[in-house]
């Protein structure tokens, strides 16, 4: 597939296509028209065609898309045909929840190590992974070909830890700390700011309140 | 403040403004120009002014915004001047992590009850909350003036549980289940699809890979 710069808005929609196509596949559906997909996903058929045209259109014909092929192609575009090695920094409740969530592994995101600055929990097992001290991180990242670091640590330490990780060769950060990281442009960062999401819900609740 | 329909893109940026203004306030900074705010937040000053103009502009004058006032006003717009009563449905690792995250309470989001379909964990305490059976949910929602439900349950049960919650009078759902809920338009839904976020990171990693 030829590379061109795709907008982040399109990228943001790809996982949702992938999810719906996976469901269709599980239901044994082999072909689907953009109109049918549009009805299920509640986006316009023209949006779907436009989005897919960014990737060559996926061979839409009169009778629609091949579900299995489309699912696989979008998976490849999302990089899901390769395994990723992850570490989690911060073994609190959220870090533990992520390590325990098996669906990530099914998609090829493998948690290799867990790190925490609190000596009281060093050696504690989360699934089969023993929590390690931060001092082990550099060697571990280099020896285990870690490409993604997940930050589930407080805001106060996130910026410094992110800088360390970058210096160890990490290429991508999945950031749950409630702060915007300041890392070089070539490092990919995806933020999950849970408080921001909850506040947005609160806004919509307040602004639609009917009393 | 007069109500008008504000775009979701603007709404999505409000919590970030709120976060930066909170930090500035904590640092003792009382005034800031849109240009200074623009430098810190890495958005254009014109974007900031446009966003704020949706809410009357917040009295920007030659010498800039009053940080404390702006923080408070954006907080009000986000509905943070009121308390919200929440329940969590699904007491797995993620549900437990959310209940244990104190920052939500500091913002007025109070977890009142935790529910799970697994009898083995009924009565288990998460902070001071005992996990309750699903059968208690209807009465609990009505008696405790619950307005927000947090769904941390598997995809397979999320749709049905969301419908139940709506019938009990819930007005907003913070959905972590990996499915798009099908609820009436007047119910506010905010999705946190963690897998989608990780896939987006994976895409950006794959498409910027330099080998």
Characterization of the model:
2 copies of one chain form a homodimer. In chain A, strand 5 and strand 6 form a beta hairpin. The first copy, chain A, is 45% helix and 18% strand. In chain A, strands 5-6-4-3-7-8-9 form a 7-stranded mixed beta sheet. Chain A is α/β, with parallel strands linked by helices and 211 residues long. The longest helix of chain A has 19 residues. The interface between A and B is large, with 56 and 57 residues.
Total beta strands of chain A: 9
Uncertain regions of chain A: pLDDT < 50 for 5+ in a row?
A: none
Classify the beta-strand content of chain A into a percent band: 15-25%
- Helical residue percent of chain A? 40-55%
- The overall pLDDT of chain A, averaged over residues, is 91
Please write the string of helix (H) and strand (E) elements of chain A.
HEHHEHEHHEEEHEHEEH
Radius of gyration of chain A: 20 Å
Helix vs. strand class of chain A: alpha/beta
The quaternary structure here is homodimer
SSE diagram, text form:
Two copies of one chain form a homodimer.
Chain A: H1 8-26, E1 31-32, H2 34-41, H3 45-53, E2 65-66, H4 67-77, E3 84-89, H5 93-100, H6 102-106, E4 109-116, E5 125-126, E6 129-133, H7 137-143, E7 148-151, H8 155-168, E8 172-175, E9 188-191, H9 194-207
Parallel strand pairs in A: 3-4, 3-7, 4-6, 7-8, 8-9
Antiparallel strand pairs in A: 1-2, 5-6
